[in-house]
Amino acid sequence: MSEIIKPENIVYQKTKVLTDKVMHYCPGCGHGTAHKMLAEAIDELDIQYETIGVAPVGCSVLAYYYFDLDMQEAAHGRATAVATGIKRVMPEKYVFTYQGDGDLAAIGTGETIHCCNRGENILIVFINNGIYGMTGGQMAPTTLSGMKSSTSPFGRDTKTMGNPLKITELVAQLAGTYYVTRQSVHTPANARKAKRALKKALEYQKLNKGTCFVEIVSNCPSNWKMTPVESNKWMEENMFPFYPLGDIKVPQQ
Amino acid sequence: MKELKLMKGNEALAEASIRAGADAYFGYPITPQSEVIEYLMFKQPEKITGMVVLQAESEVSAINMVYGAAACGKRVLTTSSSPGISLMQEAISYIAGAELPCVLANVVRGGPGLGTIQPSQSDYFQSVKGGGHGDYKLITLAPATVQESVDYVKLGFELAFKYRNPVMILTDGIIGQMMEKVELFEQQPRITEQFDWATKGKVRGKDHVIVTSLMLQSEEQEKVNLRLQAKYREVEKNEIRYVTYNCDEEIDYLMVAFGSCARISQKAMELARAKGIKVGLFRPQTLYPYPYEAINKLASKVKGILTVEMNAGQMVEDVKLAVNGKTKVEFYGRFGGMIPAPDEILNALETKLIGG
Ligand SMILES: Cc1ncc(C[n+]2csc(CCOP(=O)(O)OP(=O)(O)O)c2C)c(N)n1
Ligand code: SF4
After folding, report:
1. Could you give the ipTM of this predicted complex?
2. Per CATH, the architecture of B243-354 is what?
């Protein structure tokens, strides 16, 4: 056995941009895969030592333990303002935020829009699972019409609770965004595509052409009250029709 | 090069931030301090020292930009006035919790609510007793002159980095708006030091840097609090600053006032002394840490103390704590943007302390 464990025989290994800390995410949750794709993108670009990340308040609040990167913890919703502060004084670094839908599209909507509108040269990774995971499954701005949550126990009634927000389409309208795309990580093929998008978005940062925004439509088996497999199926059948995957804004050649 | 100039308080503070070698200013306009960002935008320090100046979309955003840049180990400041400072409280608590250095200035206006754009000192409690959530302290400097507004920017950055703690310059609309002669200190270089605690991109062979105020385990969060408390005791030991007027001689009465109110009280003191009333004045320059002991000592030799403030009586609580029952403590204040006149203060001295 030991003689085959040699560098030349390696076909796969965990990226060094992830630490050995055991992730606290629920089984089957998309956060873990999204972390991995982002970490691998950073690794493949060889920018681990030039990257500063900002963690949100949400299930991924402890993302700073998992990325072997210099990281800051922002207040709920303020990650893009924090990242703006970082990028403005460290313009030569790669800067990203990693945020859930409550963080980015509810309490932090103002910061999100103005950061994108200023065209801050950062990457925003937006995990849209249609729910507040961390606080126990309350309605998010992205919760689908009719979808149940602990604060919409009879389903989201858009007449009184507002409509699900397509913030990604919204920021794509802004002159400050350079690359806006919607991805998922629920199958190996999708995860690889998401990684390519993240890599491109990071590379674009050096062009100083504006904000790159990568949404990852994700799941929350625990609060959707489904098994991981069921949740992925539900996501395909319900989330993707409303939040279709693909590029929304691509750089003009 | 040092320079002597006639300058408006807000503009002098802005100029001082450039000269202090600040790396960035993030702000949002609000009267009576909008001249700070206007001055900086006009001066374009980015072309001179490399200092970044950015108008944020709100005070919430501005203070979170401060957080991000401060956590990179840079000299960063923001300024605002009362309602804007209220909006910043959550992030100020985060900054204190994550132990980041930065300078804040509150050019106080009358409240509560939208209040008035006229000067006030009614944010004393907010600045000195908390404001945001959790057990934290803001080192609070209270300038009484345009000169001190300038000097406290430099001092503020020194203290902020010495203790890795936010520093608040608690000034008001009078000092922000008035013109006075100032000596501007010479241009300081920007920071080149790479701090271990700052995010700057992981350093090879070292642990990655995490800036956070979150400790999910209460044992760990208690440790953070104990460390903060130990730091605050150090600040209290080392950083108390105040000035006294006529307090070394035989006096019967004492006035305590800070900021612009202390200058008006100084005039009131002169009027009183011309009438033969033996009165001195005590002016705290640091509101946190507060000069409890110095006031306590003076309390032993006077028949009473009058605290004068442009609020409904905030610092007077600290004066009472300092005096600890040794002598009578009275209060005179105007608020909602009203400024007490020297003869009003003299009258309060005569009726509340001497006659009362
Ligand atoms: C100012 C403030 N308000 C509310 C909260 C409580 N809170 C923590 S996380 C969260 C929602 C997170 O949901 P989301 O951003 O969708 O991330 P997820 O947990 O689903 O990954 C809320 C409301 C907080 N920490 N701070
Ligand atoms: S609560 Fe939901 S979003 Fe949070 S870790 Fe669990 S599955 Fe993931």
Report:
1. 0.97
2. 3-Layer(aba) Sandwich (3.40)
